[in-house]
């Protein structure tokens, strides 16, 4: 499952991997977590069809919906990095630990925690800030936030995600003003 959305997006949303419903429909984020993501996008005055492309770190559903294994993420990462190069988003929203680890650990310019540090770092320590990463020679802002599936289990964390989304929107506005 490669992903879906606008092929000239401002926003690239990266999740973990397809779940059962996504596997069945062949589209990312169409189950309960996807419905929540759609509501989040609407609150930002965005939609899947315009200015947004949604993809995952791993392109195939892990068996029994388990977490992706390092070898699976390693196998799919070149595809994700090539997507970033081709889509040329203006910002990346890494949703969840595996997306954050993958996007931030493949920074061509350095300046982010190492892959080993990222594996040990709780997601809560990565969110609430803007990272600058370089992929394919292009500098991109990256904002890390919780995965929508996590929010279904922990609704009290929605305010933190909204703060992350506001940070990402402000970052795009600043980049627009400067460039």
Give the helix level as a range of percent.
40-55%
Subunit arrangement of the protein: single chain
What characterizes the major β-sheet?
6 strands, mixed
Q: What strand order characterises the main sheet? A: 1-3-2-4-6-5
* Continuous helix count: 8
* Beta-strand residue fraction: 15-25%
What does this protein look like?
The protein has 179 residues and is an alpha/beta fold. It has a single domain (4-178), classed as Uracil-DNA glycosylase-like domain (Uracil-DNA Glycosylase, subunit E), CATH 3.40.470. The protein has helices at 20-25, 32-43, 70-87, 97-105, 115-120, 123-126, 148-153, 158-178; strands at residues 4-5, 11-15, 52-56, 91-95, 130-135, 138-145. It has a six-stranded mixed sheet with strand order 1-3-2-4-6-5. The protein is globular and about 45 Å long. The model has no long low-confidence stretch (mean pLDDT 91).
